[in-house]
Design a protein that fits this description.
mainly beta; Porin
Length: 209
């Protein structure tokens, strides 16, 4: 290889890597909606079947690789193992992500962590039980641009998975609109989530970082 080719090749590789890492996050701000499928294990979720729901979040790009998203999540579940009724799990979350540069303009893997505050509501007949708790998750996913892929504000398809730990406090029990008192908490457990969604870049801030 000619010596004077080496700086040119190095510069080309650097530009390609930079472009590939930044292509899916040209927008400083984006919004994302995802469908969720969530399953649980542990005493905090005894008798709760897997169920579906959604999440909505706004995401801010911090630099070429890091971003932070915050939003709401909501899933609904039926009960089993002799329990009658249903459960709703709602919460607020914040999720930092770190992109992994694989030198591609079509696939953008990432790793993430998530902290959430949750409200769990179990309904069975005229009895309603609510408890509040927290969840800590780690996950991974893949972003794939489509539609307007060369524009400043591309649309992204995302698929991701995560798992984590949940812990709840005491239940408050309400029967026929009257508070009946607190019960012993059913403790902690594990959650496993699959998400599929779309993210859309917004025309705010710089669009070409």
């Amino acid at each position: 290889m000619k010596p004077y080719f080496r700086p040119l090749i190095a510069a080309t590789l650097f530009c390609v890597a930079h472009r590939s890492a930044a292509a899916q996050t040209r927008s400083d701000w984006s919004v994302q909606g995802s469908g969720l499928y969530a399953a649980f294990r542990g005493s905090a979720h005894r008798g709760v079947k897997p169920g579906g729901g959604f999440e909505l979040q706004a995401r801010r790009k911090l630099n070429q690789y890091w971003s932070l998203g915050c939003g709401v999540q909501d899933t609904h579940h039926s009960l089993s193992d002799g329990f009658l009724g249903n459960e709703t799990l709602q919460g607020l979350f914040c999720e930092p992500r770190r992109l992994v540069d694989i030198n591609s303009e079509h696939f953008f893997p990432y790793f993430s962590s998530r902290a959430a505050v949750l409200r769990q509501q179990l309904e069975s007949g005229d009895i309603t039980r609510t408890a509040r708790g927290v969840a800590l998750n780690i996950g991974t996913g893949l972003l794939m641009p489509f539609m307007n892929t060369r524009g400043n504000y591309p649309t992204l398809f995302e698929v991701g998975v995560s798992g984590g730990f949940t812990n709840f406090g005491d239940f408050t029990t309400t029967q026929s609109s009257q508070t009946a008192g607190n019960t012993v908490p059913h403790g902690a457990g594990w959650n496993y989530v699959v998400r599929v969604g779309l993210a859309v870049g917004l025309p705010f801030g710089s669009s070409m970082k």
